[in-house]
Design goal:
By secondary structure, the protein is α/β, with parallel strands linked by helices. The protein has one domain: TIM Barrel. 38% of the residues lie in helices and 16% in strands. It is built from twelve helices and twelve strands. It has helices spanning 16-20, 43-55, 70-74, 79-95, 131-135, 153-162, 168-189, 214-223, 235-239, 246-255, 290-299, 326-346, and strands at residues 2-6, 25-30, 59-64, 100-103, 115-119, 125-129, 192-195, 229-234, 259-264, 267-269, 276-278, 305-308. The protein has an eight-stranded parallel barrel with strand order 1-2-3-4-7-8-9-12, surrounded by four helices. A four-stranded antiparallel sheet has the order 5-6-11-10. Helix 1 (16-20) links the parallel strand 1 and strand 2 (25-30).
Length: 347
């Protein structure tokens, strides 16, 4: 496996210098953040990112993400133009050595939490989703943690209105349409597309979610059989869905050659409904058996990219919730140990 770390470019509060010092760190996962969704990225922007990474002793082989425009998801408007631009972006990043693109097909929100600072017993705080708090949210007057700066109230209501008549089947068909245009380009330039699961893996505000479980993945891979059409196995996102068997999914899709990227993090189910909070990476801290998941990956020949996912805010670190340095660095060290142990046992 190749251990990587999410980096939000030059404006990230965490420097490449610090990331490079994490043991066994091979590279960063990044993107171009100053271009409107749907537009083509400039070669200059991608080249600059690559230069910064290489200059710090880090690879840039994973892009997370090239966002998918809402017109593509809804199958309307300028979707063919945006897909054409997406294919241009695939060619541009491939030119600079990118091997994997993580993306999602979630309508409007690509993640949802009800708080960014859930207090944990150890004194840290983390992202969390409370079923009871979600029930109190007024869909007609949405104010959501992390999203209030992304959309104006008017923009948000227009998007929700636009999706009202789009079913799960239609959204799925639009994903397949998109991939049938993009995957041939990926095959040509040697890039793997790795779809990120819904976060959390159930419908919200009437918006359909279509990558939430094994059934969804099986349908997607049957519709677009190329193994360039693969998966970001996000244990936290799938793990929030209590019926998802993460060990079995790791075994199954790794054996199929579909797992191109792995986000490793733990979650703790906090009631008998859908509530969960994000915790430290260790198995004992949450509801997921992280050691068993990693062993399933190794036993089935996984050789892709891994990154520690959301971390807690610890040691009074400020900054972007879920994306501080300290707890993700601890998570990276833990991941190193899990993979080394699993590989030793396999021998």
């Amino acid at each position: 496996m190749k251990l990587t770390f999410r980096w939000y470019g030059e404006k990230d509060s965490i420097s490449l210098k610090y990331i490079r010092q994490i043991p066994n760190m091979s590279g960063v996962v990044t993107a171009v953040y100053d271009t409107p969704v749907g537009d083509a990225w400039s070669d200059k922007s991608v080249a600059k990112l690559k230069e910064l990474c290489v200059g710090s002793g880090l690879e840039m082989e994973v892009i997370e993400s090239i966002p998918v425009h809402e017109d593509i998801k809804m199958g309307c408007g300028k979707r063919d133009l945006y897909i054409e631009n997406y294919c241009k972006n695939i060619r541009t990043v491939a030119k600079h050595g990118v091997k994997c693109v993580c993306y999602n097909f979630m309508p409007v929100f690509d993640w949802l939490r009800t708080t960014m600072h859930h207090p944990n017993k150890d004194g840290s705080d983390s992202l969390a989703y409370s079923y009871e708090d979600f029930l109190k949210v007024d869909p007609n007057n949405l104010h959501l943690p992390g999203w209030d700066e992304s959309y104006t109230p008017e923009e948000l209501q227009e998007l929700l209105k636009a999706y009202k008549n789009i079913s799960h089947a239609q959204l799925f068909d639009n994903l397949v349409y998109f991939l049938k245009k993009v995957i041939p380009v990926c095959e040509e330039v040697g890039i793997n597309m790795a779809i990120h699961p819904d976060d959390p893996p159930w419908d919200i505000f009437g918006l359909p979610r279509i990558i939430s479980n094994e059934k969804d993945l099986d349908a997607l891979f049957a519709a677009v059989p190329s193994t360039r059409n693969g998966l970001t196995l996000c244990t936290g996102s799938f793990g929030a869905g209590r019926k998802n068997n993460l060990v079995r999914m790791a075994e199954k899709y790794t054996a199929q050659g579909r797992v191109h990227f792995v986000h490793l993090r733990n979650v703790l189910w906090t009631d008998d409904k859908d509530s969960f909070c994000e915790v430290g990476h260790c198995s004992k801290d949450g509801s997921l058996n992280m050691a068993a998941i990693v062993k399933a990956l190794v036993d089935n020949g996984f050789n892709g990219y891994v990154r520690p996912d959301h971390g807690r805010n610890i040691w009074d670190e400020g900054g972007k919730p879920g994306y501080g340095l300290y707890d993700r660095a601890l998570g990276a060290a833990y991941i190193n140990g899990l993979f080394e142990a699993a590989q030793y046992i396999k021998k």
